[in-house]
Amino acid sequence: MTAEIDVTFRQATIDDLRALIALFADDPIGGHGDTTDSSALPAYASAFAAIEASPNDLLFVGVLKDEVVATAQVTFITSLTGRGTKRMAIEAVQTRADMRGKGIGAKLIRHCLDVARERDIALVQLTSNAKRQDAHRFYERLGFEKSHAGFKMRLAPAST
Amino acid sequence: MTAEIDVTFRQATIDDLRALIALFADDPIGGHGDTTDSSALPAYASAFAAIEASPNDLLFVGVLKDEVVATAQVTFITSLTGRGTKRMAIEAVQTRADMRGKGIGAKLIRHCLDVARERDIALVQLTSNAKRQDAHRFYERLGFEKSHAGFKMRLAPAST
């Protein structure tokens, strides 16, 4: 083990937006078409506003020496099943490319789990692209069980 | 193909709660511990209130001859990835045991997809227990891609 890295976590603000976009634009596997091109900035700003306005979403950033080095979004979902289970879904987990392998991702997920416990969440869930075998081992080491298959469907943009 | 079954879909109301609990209590695979025992009713009523209060959740019921025969919950999640993707997550999909194999589940999911299109959702996602191979084929027939692995972690109830 190397020395513990001194990353701290807090909720994102609009001032973090460009750094967050850069994190996602740097990800080759997800294939989400993210870009730091300024033409896309309004779409990101609109999404940020929607997340901030949602009472059931929190967007976290990991900060090291005043720089955003990681992020994750959590969504709280109450469902009827399991006698009314309170769940946390974790989405859009990312560590900056040059900051991987330092334990930042594990600290980020543990931060999400701490928040879940504070809010009396019974079940934490996430999906990971089937291609990301390293990520699967990472989540299993953290105590997650790969118990489900994740299905996605892209919908065509509405014609206007 | 048999004749199309005449199921209709609408948002659930509190009057549907007992029928919804009975649907979930009848599911042997999920292992969610659901029960029609009246001691659990307050927990379900509290969950129903949380879903109803959430601006990002809708709980649907499928109704046939004035009886609730199916249900699904959808959650709208905006994320930064993909230039601000609007997603719909589908959870807690259930068809009444004696009503399976009649195409009700497919109609239910298509109803969710219709709602997604109305709301300009780009990506619809769900997870299904790895044991539910029939469900996996069902979702693939409907056009979903099994592209992800789904991870879950149960948290112990907070000590009080």
What's the arrangement of secondary structure elements?
2 copies of one chain form a homodimer.
Chain A: E1 8-11, H1 17-25, H2 41-53, E2 57-64, E3 67-79, H3 81-84, E4 85-95, H4 104-118, E5 123-129, H5 133-141, E6 145-154
Parallel strand pairs in A: 4-5
Antiparallel strand pairs in A: 1-2, 2-3, 3-4
Defining traits:
160 residues; alpha+beta; 5 helices
Could you explain how this protein is built, in words?
The structure is a homodimer of 160-residue chains. Chain A is α+β, with helices and mostly antiparallel strands and 160 residues long. The first copy, chain A, is built from 5 helices and 6 strands; from the N terminus they run βααββαβαβαβ. Chain A has helices at residues 17-25, 41-53, 81-84, 104-118, 133-141; strands at residues 8-11, 57-64, 67-79, 85-95, 123-129, 145-154. Chain A has a 5-stranded mixed sheet with strand order 1-2-3-4-5, sandwiched between helices. Chain A is globular. At the A-B interface, α1, α2, β3, α3 and β4 of A face α1, α2, β3, α3 and β4 of B.
